[in-house]
Amino acid sequence: MSIGSRIVLSALSAILAILVYAPFSLHWFALFAWLPLLVSLQGVKLVQAWRLGLLHGFIFFGGTMGWLTKVFSAMPWAAVPLVCVMAVFVGGFALGYA
Questions:
Q1: Residue 78: how many CB atoms within 10 A of its CB?
Q2: In 3D, which of 64, 56, 46 has the Cα closest to residue 87?
Q3: To which H or E segment does residue 85 belong?
Q4: What one-character DSSP code corresponds to residue 27?
Q5: How far apart are CA 33 and CA 79, in angstroms?
Q6: Residue 34, pLDDT score
Q7: pTM metric for this prediction
């Protein structure tokens, strides 16, 4: 599988996971939202797994934690480091899974 298709699968997984939460609330997507990420991690090197996990984390937490910009309304950019920290957890998961 090419790296381009792995990137698409990682992004697709994040988008499906975003749809689980409000305002979309497609809860049944939770059953298979992470499967494209797991498929994209099969047989990759650790560095690629880390990057795919970070990509997934940035998209997922960037999409689901948009409410943080309202909490930090005086400085909405303060939400960016929080999203980055959360993305590191998904990167760690991907690193361990690979």
A1: 13
A2: 56
A3: helix 79-97
A4: G
A5: 24
A6: 96
A7: 0.92
